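Ticket #4471: structure output looks truncated?

Reporter: J.K.
Steps to reproduce: submitted the chain below (434 residues) through the standard prediction queue, then opened the result file.
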Amino acid sequence: MQQDTSLPGERPDRSLPLWPLDEVVRQGARQLVQRAVEVEVELFLERYQYLMDDQGHRQVVRNGSRPVRTIVTGAGPVEVATPRVDDRILARHGEPRFTSALIPPYLRRTKHIEELLPVLYLKGISTGDFTEALAALLGRDVIGLSAETIVRLKQVWQREYEQWNRRDLSRSRYVYWWVDGIYFNIRLDTDRQCLLVIIGATADGTKELVAITDGFRESADSWRSLLHELKQRGLTQGPAAATGDGALGFWVALAEEFPQTTPQLCWVHKTANVLEKLPSSLQGKAKQMLHDIYEAPTRHDAEAAWERFVSTFVEKYPKAVACLTVHRDELLTFYRYPAEHWPSLRSTNVIESTFATVRLRTKRTKGCSSRIATLTMVFKLVESAAKRWHRLRGYRHLPNVLNGVVFQDGMLVEAAHAPQLLPQGPAKSELEYA
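Returned output as attached by the reporter:
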């Protein structure tokens, strides 16, 4: 028995088909897309309505429609007929001819679906199960996503990563870096794969993925090889400051390859390391005291909070105090930079938040079947996540940082009267592992 969907006071129209909700959504999506394409064509024709021949006929006109194309969307497969336009006259005037921005040539699936595929792959779904998994999400009549298609897409993604990993960096300049080593399990390998990740902030505040490659754990040799490769591809200058965990071999490599870059250790990692060396009954109090250090408004206030922490715990818990004090200068580097940048500089959250979902997707599986498969899929996921990264707060100060303008306690200092607070970079042995 069909359900009556008419509104109160209306007579039901028995001539209209009654579809399940999924079909209603899909038909609505089809109508919206089709209408949007029609409007796109109408606006294009209006733009060139002044082009006429000697008889007063328009030279840019509709010319029927192309064959109906099925496009896989988040609402399921949607059939769209894109209009044809006779606009050959535009080539003589040096004007671009019509191409739909909504439905580009050869589009078969939306970007939303392109992002879904690497997510499913990292989740542990095998190539042969993709069609069934996508059918459950997008409908049984989904097309163009067979096992062979997935294999070809993986090959395309790998080529995209390899091409990105060879891109020219001679025009790149970064103000800050965030670095970390991310571990993944490999089905066919006994060792856990470590991905070395660098995310940078450019002079206009845009965050971008600088490098992602696999290395042997987080060794200095692996980081040295990565930084050397970046220099070979044209990156002649390192960032003003780099934020990372104190247990990275990165710092040794950084001192050799980009000695002018200032280290800033991540307070989130350091807090966890210190609290591990205290009994659970004191961790709440200690965490608040550490918070008072890095949230202090000035370096002087931070130093005072630091001494309170040391005097409170040094007698009974010297290991916890030693873990903190060994990196004193590197933990307080951020006071030399604009105050609006402090929340970003104090931690590697930009990396942690990006990879949190990736870790969740691989936690309950054995990961991908090979190292290159993991690397490629993670690259595609980070590429997708990068579209949602926010511009760095206080970006207007970034050119000043690049030009060596001095900041003291986060505030701009007149260059003529400022002490030389900008560091010259650590010696190779200054940073020891936490």
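Triage note (M.O.): checked the attachment and the full token line is present. Confidence is low (pLDDT under 50) at residues 1-16, 362-367, 416-434.
Status: closed, working as intended.
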